[in-house]
Structures are given as structure tokens and as C-alpha cells.
Amino acid sequence: MFADLSMAPPDAILGLTEAYKQDPRASKINLGVGVYQDDQGVTPVLGSVKTAEERLLASEKTKSYLSIGGSPEYKTHVQQLLFGADHAVIAESRARTAHTPGGTGGLRVGAEFLKQHAGSATVWTSTPTWANHPGIFSAAGLAVKSYPYYDAATQSLDFDAMIAALRTVPAGDIVLLHVCCHNPTGVDLTMDQWSEVGRVAVERGWIPFLDFAYQGLGDDLEQDRQGLLRLVDEVPECFVASSFSKNFGLYRERTGALTLVAETDSAAAAAFSHVEKTIRVIYSNPPAHGGLVVSTILDDAALRQQWEQEVADIRTRIKSVRGLFVQGLAQRGVDRDFSFIERQKGMFSFSGLSDDQVSFLREEKGIYIVKGGRINVAGITSKNIDVLCDAIADVLKK
Ligand code: LMR
């Protein structure tokens, strides 16, 4: 069986990290995978996380299994961060949450649930979208199609094309939307556009599946969820896959969630019982550590405040790097207008570099950028910014 297999192609994003690690050049720069780095090039363990871990080490009494959907405390925290503690969805008990291994786990559990209960549905993803999205849904056996999103000519959202396409999506299909910090473009919907999308979902009868992996990295924790709230105001049902990889820096702890919102408490309970069945046959129940860290922080007023400040510091650094990057290119006489980079939100900048330019940067300069031109702005530091701007200025002259 194994002898007949040739190598699978490397992953579009994680494969770059592997190639970067193998690269012997001292000046190499990894702007591929969406992982935050501080100005020293380190992906830190947040101070709030360290303290929570110390407390857990001292107090944890068991390593016994969690329940299939995770602990009740974690679920409550996830829902309160998604909707706000006073939201009607929570008061009316219309949401149910499963702790999943990362946001990816949440997406895949949702995909498996859909295959079981809406197997003929097509999942619609934005053009472009996170490189892993189509694979997650098609691996579950669902058809995947795309709707227009980003207009490369204006470096902005093509909302007219998007909404026109969403008006043609058949009832019962699924539309995948990024709540904030769209990956890879950094271009988000306005609140009015969210309301419009919600109205079209209701008119047409398709169901939104929201990917919410960057809460707090756009404007702030509260602002970043407003699109989700607008949508939930309109639609009776939706899925949300969320992640604490980025905003708690818990990447390797695989700490995410799948939340479903139904029309009633009883519909939510019934649907969630099937989500639990889905989980049981994939990984049985979630890993505990990351969820305990999140709950420990959010349950303690001082730790929570520290964490909120740490998220704000991450966001502020990314914003300032965007400015320095645009300035660095302008200083090198690059005449293309890159000011749009400062308008994009979150970790990524959709640079407009072509695939040939991306290949040139990797091969000739040891600079790793995702195909399509997505740059992880959070990987730019005062140490590598000059090398990066020189290299981009160079490639643009070619
Ligand atoms: C990314 O888009 O780089 C991150 O979401 C990490 C990943 O798993 O691809």
C-alpha cells in the first residue's frame, strides 16, 4: 500500500514554514504562517497565560476526560466573548458550544455535521479565502464553490459582486464568512453590509457559517464581533467556528470552538446532540489545557485585564508595522501605492505581489510569503524590515 504512494504536495501555508526551517540563509524571513511575533521575532507566551498555567500546575487535580463538548465554563466564556454576556442568544439559550481542537477543528466538526444532516448542501467560500477552507469542507464530502469578494484592482471589497452572488445561493446551502480580519485580504465588511448579507441569507434561506479566528486583532474585542452580532440579528440559524490561537497565543494548545445558533432552545439542544455524536467518532473529546487557561484568565478580573492589554499590545504593534512597511517601501522609491496596507485589518496584508514575485522573493531572497501574495505583517520586525523593503523594491523593478 505505501510503496505505491508518491509524496503529497506540501501544505500551502504550513509547508512554507517547513521550507523556511530548512533554508540555511541567515537573512531568511518567514512571513507565511499567521503567527504573531514580537519585535524580537519571538512568538511569546502571554504573561496572563503564564500566570494561569502556574495556577493550574498548582491546583489541577485530575487529567480525566472532559465531556464530549468540553467544560461548561469554557463554553460560557466562548459564548460571552462571541456575543457579549447580555446578548439575547445567550439569554434565550439559543446557542450551544463545543470546545474543539482549534478553529480548524471547529470548522471540520461543522463540516462533518453538515455532511450528515445536509449532505447535498454546497459550501460557498470567498475569493480568495484561507487556503485550508476548501479542503476542510471537501474532505468531509461537501461540494465547495466560491463567491466574489476582493477586487484586486481597487484593493477593496467588491460588495456589489459579492451580494449579487449571494442572492443566487440556493436555500439550504452554506455561506462561509470571515467575521473580522479577513484571511488573506484583511478587508472586512461594514456594518451595513453585514446587515444586508443577513437579509439576503433570510430571503434566500441559506445558512451562514462564520469563521472568527482573529477577535481583538482588528479594532478591539468588542468592535470585532459587531459583524457577527449584525448577522445574528437577522438570521435564525448559523454556525461559528472560533479560535483562541491568535488572541491568547495558544496556537499549539489547539483551543477553539464550534458554536451553533438555532431558533429555539430545544432546536439548539437537539442539533448539538448530533454535534456531540460527530465529535465522539472523530476525537472523542477535546484537549483540556488551553481551555483551562482561557477559563482561568477570563474568570479572574486582574488576569482578564492583563490579557485584554496584551491583545491590545499585539494589535498596536501590527498596526505600527503596517505604517513602517508602507513608509519603508515609499522611501525606496517604489511608485506603486501601497497605502491600502494600512487600511487592511488583522495579521495579514494582501500585498498585490504576483505568484512569480512571491517565488522570486523566496528563491532569491529567502523571504517566505504565501502564494497569492499574503504577507503576515506580524512577522515584520525592526531587524528584518530593511531587508524586506529592499527585496520588495527590487522585485517590483524587475
Ligand atoms: C494562517 O492562515 O496562516 C493560520 O490560520 C495558520 C494556519 O493553520 O494556516
What does the secondary structure layout of this molecule look like, with pairings?
Layout: H1 14-22, E1 29-30, H2 47-59, H3 72-83, H4 88-91, E2 95-101, H5 102-117, E3 122-127, H6 133-139, E4 143-148, E5 150-151, E6 156-157, H7 159-166, E7 174-178, H8 191-204, E8 207-212, H9 221-224, H10 226-234, E9 238-243, E10 255-261, H11 265-280, H12 289-298, H13 301-331, H14 340-343, E11 348-350, H15 355-365, E12 367-368, E13 374-376, H16 385-397
Parallel strand pairs: 1-12, 3-4, 3-7, 7-8, 8-9
Antiparallel strand pairs: 2-10, 5-6, 9-10, 11-13
Helix pairs in contact: 2-12, 2-13, 5-6, 5-11, 8-10, 13-16, 15-16
The structure holds (2S)-2-hydroxybutanedioic acid.
(2S)-2-hydroxybutanedioic acid binds at residues 13, 33-34, 130, 132, 183.
Commentary on this structure:
The chain is of the alpha/beta class. The longest helix has 31 residues, at 301-331. The mean pLDDT is 97. It folds into 2 domains: 10-45 and 303-397, Aspartate Aminotransferase, domain 1 (Alpha-Beta Complex), CATH 3.90.1150; 65-299, Aspartate Aminotransferase, domain 2 (3-Layer(aba) Sandwich). It has 16 helices and 13 strands. Strand 5 and strand 6 form a beta hairpin. The strands form 4 sheets. It has a 7-stranded mixed sheet with strand order 2-10-9-8-7-3-4, sandwiched between helices. Strands 1-12 form a two-stranded parallel sheet. A two-stranded antiparallel sheet has the order 5-6. Residues 13, 33-34, 130, 132, 183 line the site of (2S)-2-hydroxybutanedioic acid. (2S)-2-hydroxybutanedioic acid binds at residues 13, 33-34, 130, 132, 183.
